Amino acid sequence: MGFLEVKQVAHFYFTPSTATKALEDISFSIEEGEFISLLGPSGCGKTTMLSILAGLFPPTSGNVTIDHESPDANSNLIGYMLQQDYLFPWKTIEENILLGLKLNGRLSVETQEDALRFLKQIGLEGVEKQFPRQLSGGMRQRAALARTMAVNPKLLLLDEPFSALDYQTKLKLEDLVFETLRSYKKTAVLVTHDIGEAISMSDRILLFSSKPGRIHKIFEVPKELRAVSPFKVRSMEGYNEIFQTIWKELESLEENN
């Protein structure tokens, strides 16, 4: 049994007059330490699936377990990193990254020292007393990563966390997040529209079709690509082949919508 198990999940969005099926018969398993990407056309239910994994709401039917428990039971140990950093502008960077620990009742001298040490490891030494407005977009996302990692989550959920950044900063942060999660042996699920990002960061890619969202195909990223950093993946021989394969599948799905 995998660390994360999704079994026959379906989900509807209801209004007074309609019921829209967002997901249908979604089943997959993730082993501890794996990095999985959810890829697919707009409206295929990727973010809905991520929200269910986060325990923000239950699926209409089906079952999700994380480390043999429901997402609700693991809510304090799930990290969620979004496109926007959502740092509180009136709090310092230090106060922002310690907030989760404080809310969970886990703030201590030791956990505070660990969080501040991690801040330095990701290149933010000396910004502890600064406010978010004083940092660049890339630095703010690094701070958001530090806040996410401070609670030592079992599972990281990443919802297009690099899409608002310029391309150079995006590539640098992909490498940083990839190396950080590998170093700490974290399990992660990334939602992205970027095929290259999915290939360069993932062990496997789940390609969703839409209306309603289903798993269309699962792609295993070749071992030689998984062995190097995301930046280096894009220059390797096997990258273009898997990119073209996924591109054609995605194009056919969008044509059929």
Automatic annotation (TrEMBL):
User: Which PROSITE patterns does this UniProt record tie to the protein?
Assistant: ABC_TRANSPORTER_1, ABC_TRANSPORTER_2
Q: Which InterPro entries match?
A: AAA+_ATPase, ABC_transporter-like_ATP-bd, ABC_transporter-like_CS, ABC_transporter_ATP-bind, P-loop_NTPase
Mind telling me which Pfam families this protein's record contains?
A: ABC_tran
All residue ranges annotated as the ABC transporter domain in the record:
4-235
Keyword Transport included in the entry's annotation: yes
Key words of the record:
ATP-binding, Nucleotide-binding, Transport
Q: Which GO terms describe its molecular function?
A: ATP binding; ATP hydrolysis activity
Q: Which PANTHER family match?
A: ABC TRANSPORTER ATP-BINDING PROTEIN, TAURINE IMPORT ATP-BINDING PROTEIN-RELATED
Write down what this protein is called.
ABC transporter ATP-binding protein
UniProt organism field: Lederbergia citri
